[in-house]
Amino acid sequence: MLFDLLLGTAITALCLVLQSVALVAALRYYVRREGEIHSTFLRAEKVIIGLVVILILGSLAQMTIWALVFLVLGEFDTFEIALYHSAVNFATLGYGDVVMSYQHRMLGPLEAINGALMLGVSTAALARAFTTAIREQVQPERQQDLNQ
Which residue range or ranges hold the Potassium channel domain (predicted)? Predict the structure, then answer.
C-alpha cells in the first residue's frame, strides 16, 4: 500500500507538470488570439474550442501515463482496457465495470483525486475565457441600449 501511495503521488506530480504545460500552451494560444474574442461571437467560440482541444489533449496525456503505469504493474492485459479504466478514474465516473487487483487498488482513488484537481484547473482556465467572450459579446449591446 505504501508503494502505491508513493507511486500515485509521483504520478500526480508528473501529471501536474503535464497539466502546467497544457495550461501554458492553452493560455499562449488564447493570448495570441485574444483579438478574436473581441470580434464576432463565432470567432470567440473558435478560440474557446481551440482552448478546449488543448486542455483535452493535456488530460488525455495524463490518462495515458496512468494507463501505462497500470500496464507495467500487470493490472490489465491491453492498453485499451488500461486507458479505459484510467479515463473512468480520471473523470471520477467510477463505473466499476473494470477493477484493479487488491494489491494496487489504491491507485484508482489516487488517479481520481488527480483527475478532479487537474480538471478543476482546466475549468478555471475555461471560465476565464468564457467570461471574457461573453462580456465582449454582451457589452456592445448594453452600450447601445444605454446610448438610446
Answer: 64-131
Q: At what angle do helices 41-72 and 79-90 cross, to 10 degrees?
A: 120
Q: By residue range, what is the domain housing residue 6?
A: 2-147
Global pTM reads: 0.82
Which residues of the chain register pLDDT less than 50?
Answer: none
Cα 73 to chain centroid distance, Å, stands at 25
Q: Is 109 exposed, middle or buried (0-12, 13-18, 19+ CB in 10 A)?
A: middle
Q: Which pLDDT score is estimated for 118?
A: 92
Q: How many residues does the chain have?
A: 148
Residue 10: partners with Cβ closer than 8 Å, 6 or more residues away:
none
Between the CA of residue 72 and those of 6, 98, 114, what are the distances in Å? 16, 17, 19
